[in-house]
Amino acid sequence: MYDFLIIGCGFAGSVLAERLAKEGKKILIVDKRNHIAGNAYDFYNKEGILIHKYGPHIFHTNSEDVFKYLSKFTEWRPYEHRVLGSVDGQLVPIPINLTTINKLYGKNLNSDEVVGFLASKAELRKPVLTSEDVVLNVVGKELYEKFFRGYTRKQWDLDPSELDASVTARVPTRTNADDRYFTDSLQAMPKNGYTEMFQKMLSHENIHVMLNTNYKDIVDIIPHRQLIYTGPIDGYFDYQFGKLPYRSIDFKFETLDQENYQETGTINYPTSNLYTRITEFKHLTGQKHHKTTIVYEYPTAEGDPYYPIPRKENQDVYNQYKRLADETPNVFFTGRLGTYKYYNMDQVVAQSLALFRKIIKEENAVQQ
């Protein structure tokens, strides 16, 4: 008899497995893939280069609690991610910043002047309902076309005018020369990779891991008291309200017989090419190697579910599943797929730590 059957070995499931095991709970964690670590899984390819199987995963957080928790399972390599965009035949910083504006327009503005410059370009939109509204409000039509519209159409197969405001609200516009992609107070990469961190997280004697396993094949035959589900919530309920749509990515890896390919970790292609971006892993990992591996990302409608599509009609369908989930005893739904919401890695860890505290609190209340 297991205390918890946990579906999914990514951040959501693995953090809960580790925390509950420490409390003396017997855990069975299963995953349909042949590896742990979910989408954060990394490994050494045949040339010996450490790569991320499901595209670049860059850790950043403002939560000291999350960072301190994960530090039990890994040392860190300081790393601040930088992204360039291929725009008008040159490479400029993304998010848009002071340098971006000066390079694109051949100007020498300071921070105060760039505020006025952007204000002169902005198109006031009220109310702000869509991703298009967000961008036009801040930078106007020209920069919207150069940086956002084409990229968004490739990524989501929708025009920004059809997407929730939250999508482009994630990407700030800066009036200083800060060219870091993230501004979180804690930015680092697991020193020996994510997979090793997960191996340590799941190494507790109370945790049993089963890979290559569809939970539906075992859920009725392996006794367990409670279930934690981190897979797609619509799949759990056999799609009775219809399938929740996701965007996926087709990753094309290429290893080159040269030390470096590009000057920064990621280069975005907002208007040119079918792919959205190219990432070179050695920038992220700090690995020294005489060859280098890059990955091209081609967004697609088919494949593994990566990005919930933030539109009102999809949220309405999710809310129907959420009501069912709330009425399902002894089952907890969590993680990006279990709650149909785009979370960064640190947010998933925080969500799992919060759910752990809730579970323990409820158990203690029952026992009293």
Automatic annotation (TrEMBL):
GO terms for molecular function: flavin adenine dinucleotide binding; UDP-galactopyranose mutase activity. Pfam families: GLF, NAD_binding_8. Its cofactor is FAD. InterPro entries: UDP-GALP_mutase (IPR004379), UDP-GalPyranose_mutase_C (IPR015899). Residues 146-342 form the UDP-galactopyranose mutase C-terminal domain. One of its GO terms (cellular component) is cytosol. Signal peptide: none annotated. The keyword Isomerase applies. Transmembrane segments: none annotated. Keywords: FAD, Flavoprotein, Isomerase. PANTHER family: UDP-GALACTOPYRANOSE MUTASE. Belongs to the UDP-galactopyranose/dTDP-fucopyranose mutase family. This is UDP-galactopyranose mutase. It comes from Epilithonimonas lactis.
